[in-house]
Design goal:
- With 153 residues, the protein is of the alpha+beta class.
- It has 2 domains: 45 residues; 103 residues, 2-Layer Sandwich (GMP Synthetase, Chain A, domain 3), CATH 3.30.300.20.
- Helix content is 27%, strand content 36%.
- The protein contains 3 helices and 7 strands.
- A 3-stranded antiparallel sheet has the order 1-2-3, with no helix packed on it. The chain has a two-stranded antiparallel sheet with strand order 4-5.
- A hairpin with a 5-residue loop joins strand 4 and strand 5.
- The protein is elongated and about 60 Å long.
- The mean pLDDT is 93.
Length: 153
Amino acid sequence: MTSEHPRFSLDLKRISGYQFETNFDWEAASLLLDEPAPLGESKGPNASRLVGAAVGNCLSASLLFCLQKSKQTVRSLHTHVEGELIRNERGRLRLGQIEVTITLDVESEQPQRVKRCLDLFEDYCVVTASIRKGVPVRVAVKSPRGELLYQAE
């Protein structure tokens, strides 16, 4: 059954320290998340790196999809992402910017099709477009008995 507004879910369970095991709503390997030192042990990516990976993956997949749909032969595609952390007016760390560089080797006898994909692919990237506009986040904290301890929208 498809929905006009598809949903997804994932669960994070604290293992120890700042390490969390993340399980997804489809058959995929769990992912260990961790913070860098001095908080954590860098045994997995942290949230900022996951956001960078999501942006880079979404852009790469969007470009690849367009090129394949246009019957272009992609020899290789490599994506490099750099994120910058900045402090806001209250001194809290925030993602200041994300820079994505895609290195593309495509074999094409129809360069206009490649150009068309280059003109379109960003607009079809769900994650990048959402982050650029800002995504509403609702937060709730509950006790093990289900009592609401905190809620923010």
